UniProtKB/TrEMBL annotation, chain A:
This is Cytochrome bc1 complex cytochrome b subunit. Residues 540-582 are annotated as: Disordered. It catalyses: a quinol + 2 Fe(III)-[cytochrome c](out) = a quinone + 2 Fe(II)-[cytochrome c](out) + 2 H(+)(out). Signal peptide: none annotated.
Length: 582, 289, 382
């Protein structure tokens, strides 16, 4: 069985391997005697990875992180994390002689007096944007396909932590150049901290080493940005990858693919080549963007000055949604016993992101509690086959998207000729109504798609051929779908609504559980009850009988050239004529 | 003028493509020509022609402006007290030159925001209107080219002026007009327009007169020299190359986020689809090796 | 255990099962049996030596072009000037654009070449690998549990609660040094206020009675007569600019930035008739010239986006809007408190000066702040 592939494999690599067998063998032997590489590599060199474009989204994040490490190290060679004041004397004329922090002066030095420095700065920034964006689309893929289910819940948690840390890493990096935009961001962050009840001002004074802006924030953020968070990110990425290898990758259901196997290409050579090639592509795209698209032109913003501000002061996109929440929040403040709680800041920027992150973290556990599903899952589900799950994420995405739009309300206002006030009023309602609408629409949409699948399975696909019967009636001809397509459609598990009433003990007394069990029952009904279950063998049989009956009615056309097969796109039509006799 | 400054001042240090020089020459010539056309009549006037201008301006005013601004430029109000057009008494020639010269006036309909549009009046007619409104009451006059030109300063002084102009710009202007002069949003659908490509004279007049909702920055607020420096800074921004490549409209992080998603993620997902896509298949079978 | 699917054997489900593949037996409710992996089909490059050669050349050309890009990168690095003599292409910074596109090209071409190699030339037989449950086997669990129990038993941790509890307590207490050590990150707000009784802390700024209001950037004092109706001045206290006597400011460095971040103000001259004077604020203005803190009460961005016609001041960060004709009241947006107003007057020489410091803290709200919005409490804080 395996002879065949190994032969093919050796034909491509054989020439190189036979050139210096002894030298290579000696090195391998030396290493193996010390490291035991043979045992380690035995299992993994030909480890199988399934092939699907959506499985590579996480790789974008991994590779852009590598780009971040490389370009980041380059930047540290010149960057000076200091708020000490200097007068700029570099090449950029429009700022010459201006007092600024050493941080910005060194950033300008990198941009204008180090060849390739501006390129590296822009690559670093673009890669950071792509890093977080790709983590998010990877997260969406994992959620929509059900890849977070047992046994992968912990990897979901690790992934969510990576997203959180990536965002913090991005924010600290955004602050380091100490230009007008960074400083405005830090100033807002100071306001955020001060809004925290009881300890807010203490947090602010400790972080800034006294009153804002102080002279400590840049060096402190620098340590966090280049040491603390990257270290945590590296450790978590390693854990994420190890768990991926241990669990083996999920796969789409299909002929030959089961819960017990994984079908795909071996690590060596195909997957190594594809992953390695993709690294170069991600690196290349970052370089292209860094070379062609200006990002954060600090020289135009100038040094941070607590009295200056620019229109369009926004955080980077990943901080845009809490910023949007901050913008549309009504100005509410409480005064109790001489103390102030600034709800208008505390709720949208401290509580809301924490709440959203907790929800994100808990999604796998909430779902498994509702469904009671404790089985291992290695086959993915199509989003339509989990309508409620899909709808939950679409609702969350809608919430995120509306908040995001609210965060760019000034740019939307000038580009679309709208009023920022009207946008804000609209968003105040839309962030509550929009997700609900999205939830119901998505859920029903998914169920409709399920019905369509069932139709295809039971009655075949629509050929688009309209037949006229001898009596003059018209009907569209349906033809059965292929065996593998039919199997793929049925390769999903049957779902059962959890019924708390049914949980009785041996004596017929309802099992304890009370209100919680009832809630779970109700949620489970919401989750599953409207879903279309796949047909049983008997139903399928009956439908096929029915179809055969219809075929007999249309049988006069059977075998004729215009029986529909020719034009349904599923067959080659070469050599067939429309009206010709056989 | 900008063109001359380039050869005399700091910008000469920039090496440019050959075409860029030619372009600047053409632009400079056009600019000089159009400014000459704009100013020549104003400079070569006697009191007689001034009086004639005022009269001609009044004629034009009664036809084109009086409906909103009143027969004598006193302003018009609706019955419930809403202003249709403000009083023009004392706004001076500078305001007329700005509003009419940039096509903002006459407006298509009364409103808070007067968008820039193609001018309705010729340069001569604009000058006549300005002369008429200036005759209503004393007000800021149209600035002379020497008011906003760095000509006559040494290279070092020019550079220092640009640096100072940048700081004044970032303190007083960027809050509304954005750090690149790209414009920004104001309450209730208003906006601060872009400053890019706006002629120096109009920037000067806008600061001087505070058109529409803009605050005024009179000479007691920002001195004429400081106004000149701001204009020089904006000029230097426009003349500087885009050091980092395409500037994304100078709109800041929102545009950057959009590009990261559309260009970056778009391209990379496209590559991922290609990498995982099935290759073409042959109907032939391989002869077993 | 890794096995390879037999590509030439037809690949029907039944055959596979007999080959040791684990296709589960069909349960009664399952409508269709797993048909097994479809038959392998070949690519043109597998069966046509010409296509194979072509693909090989294609990949090699991609790698070759990449090398060309790398050479161009080095050439560009050496040839294109930056700094004072910045070369440009199409009005873009030549160095950045050329280095970026050549580096990007070099990397992309390598990546595309490798992928093309994998797609066209590397074996593309799908392989099947069996999964193992993530959980450990029962035997393993048993052995582990026993080892664990043995170890714990030998340590006696269960039998000696005194040792266990005192250790837990001691280790738990070690959290204290970690927290205590962070104490010196900065002073507390009250310490900061005590260290600088004039202007330190959250409740005071550097403004003092008689301090001149000067233009930002240039630092020149302002006469009331300098300003026309509609003029907006971004202003600062005189103390942060060099004095005439000694040529350097009274404060500098961190202190200066702290002072600036609290004391920045805007001066706006309005038509006195349009101003709705706040209670007790009748003499806070000079001929329609009013002075407000420039620091937004929401999260502290500096604000100066004023609409001259409406006196509405907008914050560019989160769009809080304040009415400057009406004591800086919030009329839109997330800010909850009015903008603090600085009482001003004219000194002997005719320059605008502060009557006093702000009468309330400037900037964002915080826990210890006891003042309430004038909208809620009238003149209590005025």
């Amino acid at each position: 069985m395996s002879i065949d592939t190994s032969k093919v494999a050796t034909t491509t690599s054989g020439a190189a391997a036979t050139a210096k067998p002894n030298r290579a063998g000696a090195v391998a032997n030396w290493a193996d005697e010390r490291l035991g590489l043979g045992t380690l590599a035995k299992k993994n060199l030909r480890k199988v990875f399934p092939d699907h474009w959506s499985f590579m989204l996480g790789e974008i994040a991994l590779w852009s992180f590598v780009v971040l490490l490389l370009s980041g190290v380059f930047l540290t060679l010149w960057y000076v994390p200091s708020m000490g004041e200097v007068h700029y004397e570099g090449s950029y004329n429009q700022l010459r002689g201006i007092a600024m922090s050493e941080a910005l002066a060194s950033t300008l030095h990198i941009s204008f007096d180090v060849r390739g420095g501006l390129l590296m700065r822009q690559m670093h920034h673009w890669a950071a944007m792509l890093f977080i964006a790709s983590m998010m689309i990877h997260l969406l893929r994992v959620y929509f396909t059900g890849a977070f289910r047992k046994p992968r819940e912990l990897n979901w948690v690790i992934g969510s932590l990576l997203l959180l840390l990536g965002t913090l890493e991005g924010f600290t990096g955004y602050s380091l150049p100490d230009d007008l935009l960074s400083g405005t961001g830090i100033r807002a962050a100071d306001g955020f901290m001060k809004s925290i009840p009881v300890v807010g001002t203490y947090l602010s004074f400790f972080l800034f080493g006294g009153e804002f802006p102080g002279e400590s924030i840049i060096p402190r953020l620098y340590t966090i940005h280049v040491l603390l968070i990257p270290g945590l990110l590296l450790a978590l990425i390693a854990a994420h990858m190890l768990l991926l290898v241990y669990h083996k990758h999920t796969q789409w259901p299909g002929p030959g693919r089961t819960e017990e196997n994984v079908v795909g290409f071996p690590m060596l050579p195909v997957y190594a080549a594809k992953a390695g090639g993709f690294f170069f592509i991600v690196f290349g795209v970052c370089a292209m963007m860094g070379g062609l698209l200006t990002i954060n032109p600090v020289w135009k913003y100038g040094p941070y000055d607590p009295t200056k501000v620019t229109a369009g002061s926004q955080p980077d996109w990943y901080m845009g949604w809490p910023d949007g929440a901050l913008r549309i929040m009504p100005g509410i403040e409480s005064h109790i016993f001489g103390y102030t709680i600034a709800w208008n800041v505390f709720l949208p920027i401290i509580v809301l992101p924490g709440l959203m992150f907790t929800i994100l973290l808990m999604l796998p556990f909430i779902e498994s509690w509702i469904t009671g599903d404790k089985r291992d899952h290695h086959l993915l589900e199509r989003p339509r086959n989990a309508p409620t799950r899909t709808a939950i994420m679409v609702a969350l995405m809608t919430f995120y998207g509306l908040m995001w739009a609210a965060g760019g309300n000034d740019i939307i206002a000038i580009k679309l000729n709208l009023s920022i006030n009207q946008i804000s009023y609209f968003m105040r309602v839309a962030v509550f109504v929009g997700p609900l609408l999205a939830f119901f629409i998505t859920r029903r949409w998914c169920i409709s798609l399920q019905r369509h699948d069932e139709q295809k399975l039971l009655h075949g696909y629509e050929t688009g051929i309209i037949m006229r019967s001898p009596e003059g009636g018209y009907s569209e001809r349906h033809l059965p779908i292929s065996e593998s397509a039919a199997y793929t459609l049925t390769a999903r598990s049957r779902e059962e609504v959890y019924d708390p009433e049914a949980q009785t003990d041996a004596n017929g007394v309802p099992a304890p559980g009370g209100r919680l069990a009832k809630l779970r029952g109700r949620l489970s009904t919401l989750w599953y009850a409207d879903n279309v279950q796949k047909p049983t063998a008997a139903e399928l049989e009956e439908a096929h009988h029915h179809a055969e009956h219809e075929h007999q009615l249309q049988g006069a056309m059977e075998g004729r050239s215009a029986d529909g097969h020719q034009f349904d796109g599923h067959h080659a039509v070469e050599g067939e004529t429309l009206r010709g006799d056989h | 003028m900008r063109f001359l400054n380039r050869s005399a001042g700091r910008l000469s240090r920039h090496r440019r493509g050959r075409l860029a020089g030619l372009m600047m020459l053409v632009v400079g010539l056009l600019l000089t020509g159009s400014m000459y056309a704009a100013f020549a009549p104003a400079q070569a006037e006697s009191t007689d022609t001034q009086a004639a201008d005022v009269e001609a301006g009044r004629e034009l005013f009664l036809i084109g402006c009086a409906f909103c601004h009143g027969q004598n430029g006193e302003g018009q109000y609706t019955v419930n007290g809403d202003q249709i057009g403000p009083s023009l008494v004392g706004v001076g020639a500078a305001a007329v030159d700005f509003q009419v010269g940039t096509g903002r006036m006459p407006m298509a309909q009364p409103g808070q925001q007067a968008p820039r549009k193609p001018e309705s009046y010729s340069d001569e007619e604009t000058a006549q209107l300005a002369a008429y409104v200036a005759s209503l009451a004393p007000g800021p006059g149209i600035p002379d080219e020497s008011d906003y030109s760095l000509e006559g300063l040494t290279a070092e002084e020019q550079e220092a002026a640009i640096v100072r102009g940048g700081q004044i710009f970032l303190t007083n202007c960027t809050a509304c007009h954005n750090f690149e002069g790209a414009g920004g949003a104001m309450p209730r659908g208003g906006y601060a327009p872009t400053l890019r490509g706006v002629e120096p004279k109009y920037i000067y007049e806008a600061m001087l007169t505070g058109p529409q909702a803009m605050d005024s920055f009179s000479n007691g607020n920002i001195t004429p020299d400081e106004k000149r420096d701001v204009i020089a800074y904006l000029g230097s921004l426009e003349e500087s190359p885009q050091y980092g490549g395409f500037g994304l409209g100078g709109l800041g992080p929102v545009a950057e986020g959009l590009f990261a998603w559309v260009v970056g993620i778009g391209a990379l997902v496209g590559f991922a689809i290609w990498i995982a896509a099935h290759t073409t298949r042959s109907s032939k079978k391989k002869v077993s090796a | 255990m890794t096995t390879t699917h037999d590509s030439q054997g037809g690949g029907a489900g039944l055959e596979q099962s007999s080959d040791g593949h684990h296709l589960p037996a069909l349960p009664p409710e399952e409508p269709l049996a797993n048909p097994g992996l479809p038959e392998h089909t070949w690519r043109p490059t597998d069966v046509d030596p010409k296509a194979e050669k072509r693909a090989e050349r294609q990949v090699a050309v991609l790698f070759g072009l990449s090398a060309v890009c790398t050479v161009l990168f080095v050439v560009g690095y050496i040839a294109l000037g930056i700094g004072d003599n910045h070369d440009t292409v199409l009005n873009y910074g030549a160095s950045t654009v050329v280095l970026g596109t050549t580096l990007g090209g070099a990397l992309l071409l390598i990546g595309i070449g490798i992928i093309q190699w994998a797609r066209k030339l590397m074996a593309d037989h799908e392989m099947v690998e069996m999964r193992h449950p993530a959980r450990s086997s029962d035997e393993d669990r048993e052995v582990t549990l026993k080892a664990l129990n043995d170890g714990l038993e030998e340590s006696g941790i269960a039998r000696r609660p005194l040792v266990r509890n005192s250790l837990l307590g001691a280790v738990g207490l070690l959290g204290a040094p970690a927290i205590v050590l962070l104490r010196d990150l900065g002073p507390t707000p009250s310490q900061a206020a005590a260290a600088d009784p004039e202007s330190g802390g959250l409740e005071r700024t550097i403004w003092a009675p008689g301090m001149r209001i000067v233009r930002d950037v240039v630092g020149t004092p302002i006469r009331a007569s300098d300003l026309e109706i509609g003029d907006l001045v971004n202003a600062e206290p005189e103390a942060i600019f060099p004095t005439e006597e000694n040529g350097y400011p009274e404060i500098e460095g961190v202190e200066l930035n702290v002072a600036k971040s609290k004391a920045a103000v805007i001066l706006l001259r309005m038509d006195p008739d349009e101003i709705i004077p706040g209670e007790g604020r009748d003499n806070w203005t000079v001929d329609g010239i009013t002075c407000y803190s420039k620091i937004c009460t929401h999260v502290g961005c500096p604000i100066s986006l004023n609409e001259r016609t409406t006196h509405h001041l907008l914050c560019p960060c989160h769009q809080s809007t304040f009415d400057l004709a009406d004591s800086g009241r919030v009329i839109f947006g997330p800010a909850a408190r009015h903008l603090p107003q600085l009482p001003i007057m004219v000194d002997d020489e005719g320059y605008l000066v502060a009557q006093s410091d702000f009468t309330e803290p400037v900037g964002p709200s915080y826990w210890e702040r006891s003042h309430e919005d004038i909208g809620d409490q009238g003149e209590a804080d005025l």
